[in-house]
Write a structure and sequence with these properties.
Number of helices: 2
Largest sheet: 3 strands, antiparallel
Structural class: alpha+beta
Shape: globular
Oligomer: single chain
Distance between the termini: 27 Å
Low-confidence stretches: none
Mean pLDDT: 93
Order of helices and strands: EHEEH
Number of domains: 1
Radius of gyration: 11 Å
Length: about 60
């Protein structure tokens, strides 16, 4: 994966709908789909190839 956006997740999911962009659950879903790479306990690098549609799908409840 090339470079991407660095994102530090929140400590806990706030359970809003749709999930917020920094939600740990959203980041975990992106990681499972190969669109993000975990770099630390709460930090991720999201791929620049991730489309808006894929990001919205990860945030969906």
């Amino acid at each position: 994966m090339a470079s991407g956006r660095k994102i530090k997740t929140k400590k806990k999911c706030c359970e809003s709908r749709p999930r917020c962009k920094r939600c740990p659950a959203s980041m975990k879903r992106l990681e499972r789909n190969g669109l993000a790479k975990r770099t630390g306990k709460r930090s991720y690098v999201v791929s620049l190839q991730a489309t808006k549609r894929e990001l919205k799908a990860a945030r969906r409840r």
